[in-house]
Design goal:
The chain is an alpha/beta fold. The chain is 43% helix and 16% strand.
């Protein structure tokens, strides 16, 4: 099978997710990876030895419209893909240009991975919603990462037999970028990722003083880009909260996970979390909320602890439990690592994606 894998994003977990799937698929089929020249992990794509087409997309939001309206660029890209003669187009993540590229290849089957079947609170952009709806309608098959959203996809018009549930893969990529030695540190909670309304940071900031009463030496790292204005008053009233408010490059990630004992994901809604597999790669247990696909990633009492969303007391209690019971935290972290390596390894993920692509090709040729 000849697969044109198209990932035009620039940074974040999606870049690693797409690269790892591309490498896995390339061991089983012929793959052309179409990627952005502005991707932050462009060097890793080149080092992987994949057949690449590098596309100039845009460096920032100001360049989105001019770059998108450069139709000559799109037709050059179409010619490059046509030369490869793919059997199927595969999008591990959607992009602004996905519907346009699909329109250019009406005779090819298409498979898209939808990471957020329901857009998050605070991120419900009508343009993003329109692009996602269009890409779903154009797709032959749709991949989602959590079983809980099968009915959501059906309500959006995707037949159940055209939906594949394939979880997010493991992210040991980040742990391999540094030594396995943990830095000595006080009991530490970590909130990691882009600051968005749905991630429940305000709940964690309310819970942290309760944790401090029980564990005076405890500290909290808040790491990620995003607007912190609505959290300023809370942050200013707290001690031992360390804020790193910028986009964290791949090579920086291990710095924060090596200093953490528990990852806290107090989301108020969620599809799933790419940060949870990162924590498991570092053998760190997770305290998270029972929302969306999170319970499919965190096994309560086995790889972490689950609490009701918005419950400050329960969140604090779970954090205290893992910070004070080092043996239990270590056991949960080890089991999380085992779960990730066994159930989410990229060889297994690539096998399942390949089956989805093969099914799309067969279904398309039968029409």
């Amino acid at each position: 099978m000849r697969i044109a894998l198209i990932y035009l994003g620039r940074r974040g977990g999606g870049a690693t997710y797409s690269l790892e799937i591309a490498k896995g698929l390339a061991r089983k089929a012929e793959v052309l990876a179409v990627i952005s020249q502005q991707s932050w992990n462009l060097g890793a794509w080149r080092d992987a030895g994949l057949c690449l087409v590098e596309v100039p997309t845009y460096h920032n939001a100001w360049r989105v419209i001019p770059s998108t309206l450069n139709f000559r660029k799109h037709f050059v890209l179409r010619r490059e893909i046509q030369r490869f003669r793919p059997d199927v187009l595969y999008y591990p993540m959607l992009h602004l240009w996905t519907p346009l590229l699909n329109w250019m290849f009406p005779s090819l089957p298409k498979v898209v991975t939808i990471h957020d079947p329901v857009l998050h609170r605070g991120e419900r952009n009508p343009v993003v919603a329109l692009i996602q709806q269009k890409a779903i309608r154009q797709a032959t098959r749709v991949i989602i990462l959590s079983r809980v959203f099968v009915d959501v996809m059906r309500q959006q018009g995707v037949p159940c037999e055209h939906i594949d549930v394939i979880p997010c893969g493991e992210f040991s990529y980040y742990s391999r970028m540094s030594s396995s030695q943990k830095d000595p540190h006080p009991p530490t909670l970590l909130f990691f990722g882009h600051i968005s309304e749905y991630k429940g940071l305000e709940i964690l900031l309310k819970a942290f003083p309760i944790v401090k009463k029980q564990i005076p030496q405890a500290r909290l790292f808040v790491v990620g880009s995003g607007n912190l204005d609505s959290y300023r008053s809370q942050l200013e009233s707290l001690e031992d909260v360390f804020v790193i408010n910028h986009w964290v490059r791949d090579e920086e990630i291990a710095t924060y996970f090596r200093q953490a004992d528990v990852l806290v994901a107090p989301y108020t809604d969620a599809s799933q979390s790419a940060v949870i597999p990162v924590a498991y790669a570092f053998k760190i247990p997770v305290v998270a909320t029972q929302v969306g696909g999170i319970p499919e990633q965190v096994e309560d009492g086995k790889t972490g602890l689950l609490v009701p969303p918005g419950d400050v007391g329960k969140l604090a209690e779970a954090c205290i439990q893992l910070l004070t019971n080092v043996n239990k935290a270590a056991k949960l972290g080890q089991l999380g690592y085992k779960k990730a390596m066994q159930e989410w390894n990229w060889e297994y993920i690539a096998d399942r994606v390949l089956v989805s692509l093969e099914n799309a090709y067969e279904e398309h040729t039968r029409v």
